[in-house]
């Protein structure tokens, strides 16, 4: 186990060293490129690179080179097979001794009393240290995870850097486990790896900031990234926030049924650190995740950038809460075609842009597969703060969608915007539809639709209001309150529509398929008039 940890740490340092050398190509004498795969496999090549690095004029490269030399272990650093480990632990051939060879006698014949005493002291010390390590509640995690690994609820796991679950490995997280993210850290489940994070209502799994409660803030750490082999309309792509020359950031393929794993009863808090100017990670990012991925009862709270973003794929989600995102709540592009039901998006009073921001692909708005999710029973709550421009939904860059039973309220800029002519054209092609949509804006100064005339006309004169009213007789606008004022509460919000709410009337029929809960005969994410809701017991809304 110690050797595995040392190997993982060495791989992390080796990757940092390769990246540093690529940024300073003259840092090593006669070496301008380091092959990372060879670096892992070939100990002689590794020894050569580490020695040159330790002697580099670059202080950073030299420091990494010296660290790598100290950590280096013999042999390949690539994932070892369990069969090989077993064979080495139980060799098939035994060393043969000559019948005339001198054999040592008993232990007391070999060791002096002083040596025996020293040995006993050493054994006791090692046992004590081992007991402490095995029973310590705090575990540091860095580098890469190559083998099937279980994180247990009795311990608290500290992410110290970008931690990758590598191809072929499965990370299992027990209910009730806490994972604390330190600055610069994130958890990335790469393609052909797997995660099984199955919490419960009473014992959710919590990813949060490592800062003390009361000092936590957006962007304290990175977030969770899941990458898979499902179709993306840009082919194989690279996820934002991970170095472009790191192959572990790749996603996309041809398997629509690919799985990125399972997240159930999981909270992700205070994530989204800034990699570079205007380049932040999201709370939860999914790239090329297929429809075998399970996302159920997931909350993303107080992220610096978007709450959840889909880059292509066909993964679906249900019973999801995105609260007080720094930018958009739910974001999709590059051909996402999944389903979603029971989704709450709450924008905070001081930050946050669009409840939903939706694209197909910026550089080719007609790229295939086209983004076309099907969503029903969604509640999107703006803050109503007239000093912050917030929009309910922005649909642009050729995205399609089938949207049903949405409750949208409290947005100061506008409830709905179709941004360009390519997206508008999908309305006539029946690739962008809305049914059972309720916009409830009871507060003065809160907009239904924005005025688009002159230079502000970005969609060829298209009228969102006329489209909204004509799309379905079940689409309507009202100044009557659909949610209580508690929907804007920061620490203890409630998204249950009160008795008599317009959310209880005119719902659209649900799509067909096993995914959909047909008992949801109402508008919005939560059944009107209930004293309790599916958010109870596992969600939390801390301010810091």
Using brief descriptors, characterize the structure shown:
544 residues, globular, single chain
Task: Briefly characterize the structure.
By secondary structure, the protein is an alpha/beta fold. Helices cover 19% and strands 25% of the residues. Helix 1 runs antiparallel to helix 4.
Strand content: 25-35%
Structurally, how many domains make up the residues? 3
Name the poorly predicted regions.
Answer: 80-111
Instruction: Write down how many β-strands occur, each being a DSSP E stretch of 2 or more residues.
Output: 30
Supply the number of helical segments.
9
* Radius of gyration from the alpha-carbon trace, in angstroms: 28 Å
- Kindly state the mean pLDDT as a whole number? 87
Separation, N- and C-terminal Cα atoms: 36 Å
Structural class: alpha/beta
Helix % is: 10-25%
Largest sheet: 16 strands, parallel
What does this structure look like?
By secondary structure, this protein is an alpha/beta fold. It folds into three domains: 2-71, no CATH class; 137-327; 364-544, no CATH class. It is built from nine helices and 30 strands. It has helices at 2-23, 36-41, 43-54, 59-71, 82-89, 107-110, 113-135, 421-428, 464-471, and strands spanning 138-141, 144-145, 149-151, 156-159, 162-165, 170-173, 178-181, 186-189, 194-198, 205-209, 224-227, 237-238, 250-251, 262-269, 274-276, 279-280, 284-287, 294-301, 308-311, 316-323, 330-333, 339-346, 354-358, 374-381, 391-395, 401-409, 414-418, 432-435, 438-440, 476-478. It is globular and about 75 Å long. The chain starts with a helix and ends in a 66-residue tail after the last strand. Mean pLDDT is 87; it is low at 80-111.
């Amino acid at each position: 186990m110690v050797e595995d940890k040392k190997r993982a740490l060495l791989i992390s340092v080796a990757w940092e060293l390769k990246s540093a050398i690529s940024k300073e190509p003259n840092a090593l004498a006669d070496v301008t490129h380091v092959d990372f795969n060879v670096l892992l496999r070939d100990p002689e090549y590794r020894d050569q690179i580490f020695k040159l690095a330790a002697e580099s004029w670059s202080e950073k490269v030299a420091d990494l080179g010296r660290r790598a030399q100290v950590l280096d272990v013999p042999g390949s650093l690539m994932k070892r097979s369990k069969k090989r480990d077993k064979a080495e632990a139980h060799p098939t051939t035994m060393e043969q001794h000559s019948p005339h060879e001198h054999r040592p006698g008993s232990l007391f014949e070999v060791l002096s009393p002083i040596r025996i005493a020293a040995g006993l002291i050493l054994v006791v010390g090692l046992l004590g240290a081992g007991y402490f390590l095995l029973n310590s509640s705090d575990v540091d995690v860095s580098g890469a995870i190559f083998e099937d690994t279980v994180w247990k609820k009795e311990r608290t796991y500290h992410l110290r850097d970008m931690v990758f679950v590598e191809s072929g490995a499965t990370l299992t997280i027990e209910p009730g486990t806490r994972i604390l993210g330190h600055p610069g850290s994130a958890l990335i489940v790469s393609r052909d790896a797997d995660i099984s994070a199955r919490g419960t209502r009473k014992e959710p799994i919590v990813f949060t900031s490592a800062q003390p409660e009361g000092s936590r803030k957006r962007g304290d750490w990175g977030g969770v990234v899941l990458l898979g082999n499902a179709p993306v309309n840009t082919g194989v792509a690279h996820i934002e926030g991970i170095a472009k020359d790191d192959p572990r950031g790749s996603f996309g393929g041809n398997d629509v049924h690919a799985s990125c794993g399972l997240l159930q009863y999981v909270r992700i808090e205070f994530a989204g650190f800034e990699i570079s100017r205007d380049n932040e990670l999201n709370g939860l990012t999914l790239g090329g995740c297929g429809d075998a991925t399970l996302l159920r009862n997931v909350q993303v709270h107080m992220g610096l950038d978007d709450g959840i973003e889909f880059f292509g794929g066909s993964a679906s989600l249900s019973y999801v809460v995105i609260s007080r995102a720094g930018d958009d709540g739910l974001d999709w592009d590059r051909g996402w075609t999944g389903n979603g039901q029971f989704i709450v998006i709450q924008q905070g009073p001081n930050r946050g842009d669009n409840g939903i921001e939706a694209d197909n692909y910026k550089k080719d708005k007609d790229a295939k597969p086209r983004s076309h999710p099907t969503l029903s029973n969604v509640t999107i709550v703006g803050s109503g703060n007239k000093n912050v421009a917030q929009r309910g939904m922005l649909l642009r860059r050729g995205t399609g969608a089938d949207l049903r039973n949405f409750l949208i309220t409290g947005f100061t800029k506008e409830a709905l915007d179709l941004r360009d002519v390519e997206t508008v054209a999908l309305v006539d092609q029946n690739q962008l539809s809305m049914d059972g949509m309720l916009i409830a804006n009871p507060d003065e100064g809160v907009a239904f639709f924005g005025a688009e005339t002159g230079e502000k006309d970005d969609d060829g004169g298209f009228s969102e209001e006329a489209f909204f009213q004509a799309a379905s007789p079940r689409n309507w606008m009202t100044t009557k309150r659909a949610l209580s004022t508690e929907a804007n509460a920061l620490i203890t919000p409630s998204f249950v529509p009160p008795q008599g709410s317009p959310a209880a009337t005119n719902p659209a029929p649900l799509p067909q398929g096993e995914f959909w809960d047909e008992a949801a005969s109402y508008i919005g994410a939560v059944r009107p008039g209930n004293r309790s809701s599916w958010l109870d017991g596992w969600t939390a809304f801390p301010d810091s």
